[in-house]
Amino acid sequence: MNVASGYNFAYLDEQTKRMIRRAILKAVAIPGHQVPFGSREMPLPYGWGTGGIQVTAAVLGRDDVLKVIDQGADDTTNAVSIRRFFARTAGVATTTHTAEATVIQTRHRIPETALRQDQIIVYQVPQPEPLSRLEPSREETRRMHALADYGLMHVKLYEDITRFGHVSISYDYPVMVDGRYLMAPSPIPAFDNPKMDRMAALQLFGAGREKRIYAVPPYTSVRSLDFDDHEFRASRAPHACLLCGATDSYLDEVVIDDQGGRMFVCSDTDHCEGRRDGT
Amino acid sequence: MEHDTLLSARGLTLHFGATPALVDVDADLWPGEVLAVVGESGSGKSTLLNVLSGRLAPDAGVAWYRDPAGALHDIHAMPAPALRTLHRSDWGFVHQNPRENLRMAVTAGGNVGERLMARGSRHYGDIRAAAISWLEQVEIDADRVDDLPRTFSGGMLQRLQIARTLVTHPRLVFMDEPTGGLDVSVQARLLDLIRGLVRRLGIAAVLVTHDLAVARLLAHRIMVMQRGRVVESGLTDRVLDDPRHAYTQLLVSSVLGA
């Protein structure tokens, strides 16, 4: 693909990238802590990944291979656009194969293939504050984080179990990072939460509109909140993928006609294709 | 400092602009004792409560709290996390308006369980059992445990607030007009309940009230405040039966049968 002229490498100017890298270093040093940063206007709307794209721009090098995931898929608008954006402004190689990528920007999924130590995964985060729906004041939530005062989050879980018999959070399921900070894992399905625990790859989170960056360093403990007698369980649709037959991957439900017909397919398209090709 | 007071204050002074809210106030509270602070509106009762509980800092003076290990803590020099820990375990605060303390969108059980969960309880069954047991202790039907507080009456809300506060077995409870805004029959039941709980659990309490009958019923000792000063203090019966300060005499004589 043609590399666009007139842009600095990876679109952002060097000062901005340095500022973002400083925020990332601080975030890595304090796992799960939200670090404010001077989020820039990006050439895409808020909510489409402005935070993730800035973090990616700041960590991307000339030899990196970029993969972009949008809800598991490599071929949807958001994924295609961001991949093309960096191919043009940074001239980096892109891929859809998880194993070949060195930097993976993702919207709301973690690949089924386990990530390695030499990979970085960048999450797009709409709302970095896990307590936002419970406590409207940011001043108060910051104080709660500072004092590790997280009883309120458990009240929410208690209420769910009382009303529904189980915790009804199916995505953006709150986690404790390194036993200290409560963190929003971005709207990934709760199914993906266990993959974050002691992951070999560096995990970076960027929230552009909310101007926050946070991180989970490699091999850091990430525990989904639960009760001793109501343990966290990763749930998935009880079907096999209609295309590849996988029974252990996260599935999307696809409506295929107006007669009530539907099929369940792997949400991770690369994983599904790989299984069908027998690789 | 005298030996084994739970809470002591010396020379507390606080001005709101030109208005003196507290002037050179001393106070002592021993374990298991109920101290009533009485006086008319604007006499500095609630301000004293807020200063003693660390929610307001005084202009001058100190307040100490003795923790279960016997160590003294200067309440206003404590680091914020330590004060917060005190507030959610060793201490309790009962507001006049229960809506300030309760979470109205959370079930009664969740409200009672919050302090347990904040303290680190992570067993749903245990938390729920504790909530039900506490609802029963404050005379709320166990089957209301999953109801929202907005379906509760005013008296029930106040009792729910007390259950929520006492669930962690605090050693010291600050009460700001706990029976204010309730009708007389409900007040009587609530007073009876508070008295029973405080006696049975050996809780020390600082009780702010303008109602001398409440002080008579609950308190071991009384402090009478006027314009930010403590004008008289002593055993409840002594102060109410034999008031010495002119203001106390006025206060006692203005109430029938106190």
CATH class of the largest domain in chain B: Alpha Beta
Q: What is the annotated CATH architecture of the largest domain in chain B?
A: 3-Layer(aba) Sandwich
Largest sheet of chain B: 6 strands, mixed
State the largest interface. A-B, 19 and 22 residues
Alpha-carbon distance between the termini of chain A? Answer: 27 Å
- In terms of DSSP E residues, the strand content of chain B is 15-25%
- If you compute it from the alpha carbons, what radius of gyration of chain B comes out, rounded to the nearest whole angstrom? 18 Å
Low-pLDDT stretches of chain A: none
Biggest β-sheet strands, sense, barrel of chain A: 7 strands, mixed
Mean pLDDT of chain B: 90
What structural class do you assign from the helix and strand content of chain B? Answer: alpha/beta
CATH topology label of the largest domain in chain B: Rossmann fold
Order of helices and strands of chain B: EEEHEEHEHHHEHEHEEHH
Cα radius of gyration of chain A in angstroms: 19 Å
Structural class of chain A: alpha/beta
Question: Briefly, what is this?
Answer:
The complex is a heterodimer of chains A (279) and B (258). Chain A has 279 residues and is an alpha/beta fold.
Structure description:
The complex is a heterodimer of chains A (279) and B (258). With 279 residues, chain A is α/β, with parallel strands linked by helices. Chain A has 7 helices and 12 strands. Chain A has a 7-stranded mixed beta sheet. A 3-stranded antiparallel beta sheet of chain A has the order 7-6-10. In chain A, strands 11-12 form a two-stranded antiparallel sheet. In chain A, helix 1 (14-29) crosses helix 2 (50-59). Chain A is globular and about 60 Å long. The mean pLDDT of chain A is 94. Chain B is of the alpha/beta class. Chain B folds into 2 domains: 1-90 and 170-258, P-loop containing nucleotide triphosphate hydrolases (Rossmann fold), CATH 3.40.50.300; 98-169, no CATH class. Helix content of chain B is 36%, strand content 24%. Chain B is built from 9 helices and 10 strands. In chain B, the strands form 2 sheets. Chain B has a 6-stranded mixed beta sheet with strand order 6-7-8-3-9-10, sandwiched between helices. Chain B has a 4-stranded antiparallel beta sheet with strand order 2-1-4-5, covered by helices on one side. In chain B, helix 3 (108-118) runs parallel beside helix 5 (154-166).
